[in-house]
Amino acid sequence: MDPVRTAALALAGLLTLTTPAAAAPDAAPRLPAPTGSHAVGVTSLHLKDASRRDPWVPAATSRELMVSVWYPAAGTRGRHRAPYVTPKESELLIKDAGLPGVAPGTLSKVRTNAFTDAVPAGRRHGLPLVVLSPGLGSPRSSLTGLAEDLASRGNVVVGIEHTYESAATAFPDGRVTTCVACGNKAPDFGERVVRSRAADVSFVLDQLTGAKPKWRGAALIDRTRIGMAGQSVGGASSVAAMVRDERIRAGANLDGTTFAPIPERGLSRPFLFLGSPEMHGPGGKDGSWARDWKKLTGWKRWLVVTGAEHASFTDVPLLAEQIGLDLGFSMTGARSLEITRACVAAFFTRHLTGKPQPLLDEPSARYPEVTVGGQVRSLGQRSPR
């Protein structure tokens, strides 16, 4: 089976095999508080690219996207906490994962830390922008814990819902689309999906930083400091997006097989590989990182998180535990999210603000699970600083 589909189906299959444990009947799942000093606001945007047909549904003559924008907020008084997903999205996501013992609306009750349409804070052209892209089949909300943390640290963060690539995407007019791409069996599917996502990213950047931006706080964005990170195929899309769009100054791949190889000319902008031992540790299943490592000619790091699984770089393990599902992971969801937040924040802090980050350069007593990837050492190469 194509590895991108394997990654997309792995979590659903894993959850199907588990049984809900006893959970507190009135306790809604919640995300941990962000670690930065800023309150966090969030808003949703419906964007339409009339220049492209949808790559998965040819009858759709425009590519429509839902995105969430998280940002530092001036205050949250009088604002409501943002929903994690809508009730209908929750129902479809739980159905897709094969969880008959979990109430359909459970995910819509997750307590987030961002407040809907709070007033943006910051100085004009003063905030870096970070794009987040989720795994195949997953909604943009699956990276909310990371997004809220980055926003609390003074970044604008845009999470892209790649339409027909998520099990559930709700639009303002009541439409809810599902994952048409998940059933695609074409041999070039991996390359197609990352190239399509790269086009989505460029379009969203145009909408946020162009002459007539779609978000009221767009003037806060520093267009010279843009980064991107993604999990699974979203991480692979970070590579494709950087190759396509030079506005993206730094990129991170969270445990994703890269399907569209880096061109022979190489990629000289900073890049972070952050992966699980099974996929990207010594002897890991995925060889694409070793191939790409040779073509990364700028600052680069390859980090492996001991105890992490493919889904550990998302909110999934944390929420599954609170719902009462045993995924069989050796690392708790709270710890994996803490490490993901720390590593990704350190990377963007270093490369979008220029502040040194020891976590990326030397062993950390606070995060002993984070080690340099064994395949990097085997290549006999040191990362440029």
SSE order and pairing:
Blueprint: H1 3-16, E1 39-49, E2 63-75, H2 87-96, E3 114-116, E4 119-120, E5 127-133, H3 144-152, E6 156-161, E7 169-170, E8 176-177, H4 189-209, E9 221-231, H5 233-244, E10 248-254, E11 271-275, H6 277-280, H7 288-293, E12 300-305, H8 316-323, H9 333-353, E13 370-372, H10 374-378
Parallel strand pairs: 1-3, 5-6, 5-9, 9-10, 10-11, 11-12
Antiparallel strand pairs: 1-2, 2-4, 2-6, 7-8, 12-13
Helix pairs in contact: 3-9, 4-5, 8-9
Distance between the termini: 38 Å
Q: Please write the CATH class name.
A: Alpha Beta
**Weakly predicted, low-confidence segments:** 1-25, 374-385
The CATH topology is given as Rossmann fold
Strand content: 15-25%
- Describe the largest sheet: 11 strands, mixed
- Secondary-structure-based class equals alpha/beta
Give me the Rg, rounded: 19 Å
Give the ordered list of helices and strands. HEEHEEEHEEEHEHEEHHEHHEH
Give the quaternary arrangement of the chains: single chain
Tally of DSSP helical segments: 10
Tell me the helix content: 25-40%
pLDDT averaged over residues: 91
Strand count: 13
